[in-house]
Amino acid sequence: MSDTIKMYGWEAKPRDVSVLLQGPKSNRHPEPQKVASNKLPDTSLAKSVLEYAKKELNVETFNHSMRVYHYGKAIQTQQFPDWKFTDETFFLACLLHDIGTTDKNISATQMSFEFYGGFLALELLKDLQAPVEQAGSVAEAIIRHQDIGESGKITTIGLLIQLATIFGTEHAIVVFIMTEADNERR
Predict the structure, then answer these.
(1) Which residue has the higher pLDDT, 94 or 149?
(2) Can you give the pTM of this predicted structure?
(3) CA–CA separation, 71 vs 166, rounded Å?
(4) What b/e readout covers 140-158, taking b as 16+ CB neighbours within 10 angstroms?
(5) How far apart are CA 8 and CA 134, in angstroms?
(6) Is-contact 9 141, C-beta < 8 A?
């Protein structure tokens, strides 16, 4: 497998979550984890996209996007530690996964928010000089983050965003300690 496939989260995983959760890797006992233990990526690209997301998303959607990042990192580190990709790529996908839902963007097209958001993210990341493989991975994860099903495959980044949004509040895959101060918009 090429380095860019792993690095940017392109590795294929089963789309059927029940298959994924049957293996021994998903049967680890979750440990409490504080948001403060997850350091945000500190690259210029991550900082630029963070500022863009703060400006474009309403506060509820921005906070949701941050929770998806923190839930996803907890799921990855505790349940699937062999899933390797850059934190930056996952962070970008989390920040931008609902960019298509803003009032401006939802009324700009007849496309679904996932598809339009994926295209917007792709263009933004290319404009910010992100590697094309990384921009494509983020865009695909956004387009497919609501594409839950039982057949086929999905990228690691796309699947982790699905898990973080679905299981983060509905299932006890991880125990996560989060305070408002940990997640508040600054």
Answers:
(1) 94
(2) 0.86
(3) 10
(4) bbbbbbeeeeeeeebbbbb
(5) 5
(6) yes
